[in-house]
Amino acid sequence: MKTRSYLAALLEETGNQVEFFLDFSRNIFRNGFEWNEFVRQCYLIGYKSIGIVILTGFILGFVFTLQSLPTLKTFGAQNYVPSMVSISVIREIGPVIIGLICAGKIASSIGAELGSMNVTEQIDAMEISGANPVQYLIVTRILACTVMIPVLTLIADTIALAGGYVGTNLSMDMNSRLYFSKSFHDIVFSDFFPAFIKTFLFGFTIGFIGCYKGYHSNKGTESVGIAANSAVVTASIWIIMIDAIAVQITNTFVYN
After folding, report:
1. Among 5-14, 37-46, 64-73, 150-159, where is mean pLDDT lowest?
2. Of 94, 76, 109, the residue nearest 162 (C-alpha)
3. What is the per-residue pLDDT across 140-183, written as a single tens digit (0 to 9) for each?
4. Were both Cys, which of 71, 123, 149, 163 would link to 62 (CB 3.0–4.6 Å)?
5. Computed from CA positions of residues 205, 207, 208, 211, in that sequence, does the dihedral angle turn out positive or negative?
6. How far is CA 62 from CA 56, 81, 123, in A?
């Protein structure tokens, strides 16, 4: 009985998410797109997250370099540190870490905001007044996340290389021109493009999960916290799953 009820709940939740996605898709192309709200969400999601993204990117490159240098020095390969850091950060580490950081910050914020609006019946009031809450609240936030997460990832990747330069010069002397020349020497288009496309999927996932959890939260006051927490956990799991699938596809069709 428990297995059957769990399966029924899972199927119901999946159906609700599919219906939510279809509703979102229909409202993208509907007349009256909320450009002002979209720009405002891009500012809140993008500009307001730059600080934590820059800090994360710098520490990522700095620590990764410090951890790698002793091992590479053992084999006399310390000159390969810039290439290793740049390829690792751009291919995999940068997009995933920034995706998880943004899931914690942005998905929780969207889930809590829409959950609070649901509790205080602001969404119901919009529907009664003839406004389209899906077009105004959902479409703008999901599209803003889809656009801004790749931008934040590019910023973090750039700062991570700067952090790697600082970490490199704590253990060895390498001027900036040589460091960045080595960093970009071995990077090819196939390293950058699949990782960049992946960030759009991460952005969409963060926006979609945050909006879904907040929009479908219960009416009780405790549901705001539940929606925020559930949005973070679910978005983080989906980011890891999407990354695993994307890596497998990339290895099969790009690197082979």
Report:
1. 5-14
2. 94
3. 999 999 999 999 999 999 999 999 999 999 888 888 899 999 99
4. 163
5. positive
6. 10, 11, 45
Residue ranges per structural domain of the chain: 50-250
Cα-only R_g, the chain: 21
Nearest to 157 by CA among 195, 185, 186, 190: 195
What ranges in the chain are assigned the alpha helix state H?
2-28, 35-45, 50-74, 81-88, 94-102, 108-119, 122-128, 133, 140-171, 176-185, 189-215, 222-253
Question: What integer is the mean pLDDT of 65-71?
Answer: 89
* Residue type, position 125, single letter: A
Q: Are 202 and 145 in contact (CB under 8 A)?
A: no
In whole angstroms, give the CA distance from residue 109 to residue 111.
Answer: 5
**Letter string b/e over residues 65-98, b meaning 16 or more CB atoms within 10 A of that residue's CB:** bbebbeeeeeeeebeebbebbbbbbbbbbbbbbb
